[in-house]
What does this fold into?
Amino acid sequence: MQKTTNKFGMPLVGYGLWKVPKEDCADLVYTAIQRGYRHFDSACDYGNEQQVGEGIKRAIDDGLCTREELWITSKLWNTYHAKEHVKPALQKTLDDLQLDYLDLYLIHFPIALKYVDFEECYPPEWIYDTSAENPTMERAKIPLHETWEGMESLHDEGLVKNLGVCNYNSALMFDLVNYARVKPSVLQIEVHPYLTQEKLVQVCKNLDIEVTAFSPLGALSYVELSMAKENDSLLEHETIVKIAKTHEKTPAQILLRWGIQRGTSIIPKTSNPDRMSENLDIFDFELTGDEMNKISGLNQNRRFNDPGVFCEIAFNTLHPIYD
It folds into this structure.
């Protein structure tokens, strides 16, 4: 029987909640639990944690699962990097999710922005003053080690079982493990066949840190944001389509299986209940070594989620983190 969880007990396939509309979110979370999902990837910045919490509570109340059977991840937003803001940010997330603890809490970006009070704007997103004539991001002088100390205090209190980071590069990971009192459990990064991130994945393996791949299907989530084009889709790539036919699976299942077989967990997102089930149905076959190599050979170092691009376009602020 193939392994379906990592060493921490995190299910290898999770349900990604980025861009899930508020009005649909509670029902989709409930349906995902019905379909077998036990891992949910949330964030303050997604703006739907209250609805996620409603879906989780309803599923637990209806006996579909227990809290202990679920793995819930959320993320600390950029405006809460100061040590004194970390716990209130987590508490807001816990209140919205109607939970007493998280299984995993991640620093969302290695980007510290000026604090915004919950009452003023929540989630605060990227721009500090949206009414300004030329609204921009406003950086805060907060080192990442201070933020991590705040995260560690959450772990000490039992509010968070595991800590981790998102969107860090290799240099930041080496630095983090040098000062971390509580070792990071997970790095979450963009990974798909157009962006294989071989060295960074290997660095994490060497450091005994798990990797979660967001956007495991590639461009799909970014077309509607004008951050990718229709012809960027991996689902129609001839290599993927050919391998899918060989295994009598869909192209999406091949892409997700590639991610699992590389040793990463994955968090695909869909609003279609049948696709939810399809995305979980990837543990009854294996890709050959040649197929894995062919898929990995599609790498273009093509990043769709890049602050060095979208921050300048959308927020009038140049802030690259991948040079």
The chain has one domain: 15-315. The longest helix spans residues 83-97. The CA atoms of residues 145 and 176 lie 7 Å apart.
